[in-house]
Amino acid sequence: MENIQAKHQTILNDVKNRRELEIKNINTRIDNIKNKEVPLLLEKIKLQQANLHDYKSQLDQANIVINNIENTNPALTALKLMEKRDLSSFVVDLNLQLMDMRNKKDQLETTAINDLVEQRTLLESMLMPHNYKNSTVVGKVVTSDHPVAPKKKLIVAVAFIAGLMLSIFLVFLLNAFKQEDEQSS
Predict the structure, then answer these.
(1) Over 80: is that where the pLDDT of 2 sits?
(2) By CB atoms within 10 Å of each CB, which of 31, 52, 144, 156 scores lowest?
(3) Cα dihedral angle (77, 80, 85, 86), rounded to 10 degrees?
(4) What pTM was estimated for this model as a whole?
């Protein structure tokens, strides 16, 4: 029994160590999200907002130049209109990227962290001591000094009675089939 208990205890310790390692990994991932990914996204969002502001100011300047040279030089006006179109598309793209980054930041701060916290809580509940109780012997093991021998007389008597009953049943069954054949003929 002690050998079985020792093997079982090593298995329990391995499982417990794996779960503790998983909890440590989850805590590391939560810290990584909070301390690295979210601040990095915030920096990217600020940079995107600055770029967006620059492109909008360039777009405003292009509008002013277009209004000033509209009647004097049609070729230059066409070039400025193409520049305005390109700047407008950059502004739209930057707005979309900015929305995507904000959504990703919100998703990391809420959903991802909550999922990891839920996994950590589940693993911590699995680490409770009652989940790792080793096998124990409930009572003393009783051994007999005299081996149990089969009761041959009882076995022979039961076999004789069962054989007698089976043979009588077989006689009645054959008799019933014989009478049925005679009636159908």
Answers:
(1) no
(2) 144
(3) 150
(4) 0.56
User: In 3D, which of 160, 179, 182 has the Cα closest to residue 171?
Assistant: 179
**Type of residue found at 169:** F
Given a cut of 70, is residue 149 above it in pLDDT? yes
Secondary structure in 3-state letters for the chain: CHHHHHHHHHHHHHHHHHHHHHHHHHHHHHHHHHHHHHHHHHHHHHHHHHHHHHHHHHHHHHHHHHHHHCCCCHHHHHHHHHHHHHHHHHHHHHHHHHHHHHHHHHHHHHHHHHHHHHHHHHHHHHCCHHHHCCCCCCCCCCCCCCCCCCCHHHHHHHHHHHHHHHHHHHHHHHHHHHHHHHHHC
- Boundaries of every domain in the chain: 2-132, 150-185
**Of 11-15, 63-67, 143-147, minimum mean pLDDT range:** 143-147
Instruction: Identify the CA nearest to 17 among candidates 158, 140, 127.
Output: 127
Query: Residue 134 pLDDT more than 80?
Result: no
Angle at 134 between CA 129 and CA 137, to 5 degrees: 135
Q: Give the C-alpha separation, 69 to 79, whole Å.
A: 11
Averaged pLDDT, 113-133: 83
